[in-house]
Write a structure and sequence with these properties.
10 helices; 25% helix; 26% strand
Length: 338
């Protein structure tokens, strides 16, 4: 079968790989579509910290059960998605039910070969039943869960102002779940088309374009001079992260969802006087996936708004570039004959 491998930064190639063989407590999935994540763009660019080449990319999955053990609880043909964080189950994080940050964590498509191929073998514990979701909904469950987990970490309170830096797919997902949690959301991004998406599709009245607006002035205006009590970074941009404490209310929480290679630098007196809380948000937990599926089912998340681009698996000119200003989420669609 064919697989799409990122051989080196900037270089994608189709290769022939062996079909996976079924083994105990695992199932074989037939891949229908794969979302292209910021992780994949960064891998293609050579800016992904947790990465070795060559690697088959892809961890945002819409699939169906192709083969499974009789007692797995799944049936052949069942539509599923995957929690792509493979954990040890033994370390302190796993014993504390924080499998998302297992000491030995292996993320599909990052530490191990991913889903940009016809079939993959995954542990049964990682498979999430589709619960009658459509394929385009299933492929979005994992990135939506990243946003849901970030909001869970932030412990959002009803009516508080929060600032989400970055209006890419993860940032938009974070905003969506912040709204569900009852927050007043401020969206910040340099891409005006994405800010327009936040206004028109999510109903967010407060937006900031840092290339055009005075950030602090706008934040004071929106929050009645209080400043946001929560900031969530979804950019992975070092300048944005380092400046975020300047935008935070006294007693506020700063949650870093985005990822980059450099060391962050925070002015300690400024951080200390606010008695601010700094935390990271990594991946997602099983309850985040359940929350996402529930929100899709009850209409609180409108997935049709997210997918703006479709790419064809097998296209010899395929390239992972992120330059289109209208891009929200691109998915790679596989054909049965591949």
């Amino acid at each position: 079968m064919k697989a799409l491998v990122c051989k080196t930064p900037g270089a994608l190639e189709y290769i022939e790989v062996q079909m996976p063989a079924l083994k105990k407590e695992h199932s074989i999935l037939k891949i229908n579509s794969v979302g292209i994540c910021g992780t994949d763009y960064h891998a293609f660019d050579g800016t992904q910290p947790y990465f070795e080449y060559p690697r088959i990319l892809g961890h945002e999955i819409s699939a169906e059960i192709a083969d499974t053990e009789p007692d797995s609880g799944f049936v052949i043909g069942e539509k599923v998605t995957v929690s792509p964080y493979f954990y040890c189950g033994k370390c302190i994080a796993c014993r504390s039910h924080k499998t998302n940050c297992c000491e030995q964590l292996q993320v599909l498509g990052v530490h191990t070969d991913g889903a940009m191929c016809s079939y993959i073998l995954v542990p049964d514990y990682s498979i999430i039943s589709g619960n009658k979701l459509r394929e385009d909904e299933l492929v979005l469950v994992e990135p939506l869960a990243i946003g849901a987990h970030g909001i869970s970490r932030a412990q959002i309170k009803q009516g508080e102002f929060i600032l989400v830096m970055g209006a890419g797919p993860i940032g938009i997902a974070t905003m969506n779940f912040a709204i569900i949690a009852g927050a007043k959301v401020i969206a910040m991004d340099k891409n005006q088309k994405r800010l327009d998406f936040c206004k028109n599709k999510l109903g967010i009245p407060y937006t900031i374009n840092p290339d055009e607006d005075d950030i602090i002035e706008k934040l004071r205006e929106f929050t009645n001079k209080d400043m946001p009590t929560v900031i969530l970074d979804c950019t992975g941009n070092i300048k944005a992260i380092n400046n975020a404490v300047n935008y935070l209310a006294h007693g506020g929480r700063f949650v870093i969802i985005g990822l980059q290679k450099e060391e962050i630098s925070i002015n300690h007196p400024g951080f200390h006087k606010k008695e601010a809380t700094l935390m990271s948000s990594r991946n997602a937990l099983p309850e985040d996936f359940k929350h996402v599926i529930s929100c899709i089912q009850n209409g609180k998340i409108k997935t049709k708004d997210y997918i703006t681009h479709r790419l064809k698996f097998g296209d010899p000119n395929l390239s992972f570039t992120n330059q289109d200003q209208t891009l929200i989420k691109a998915i790679l669609v596989l054909d049965d004959e591949i």
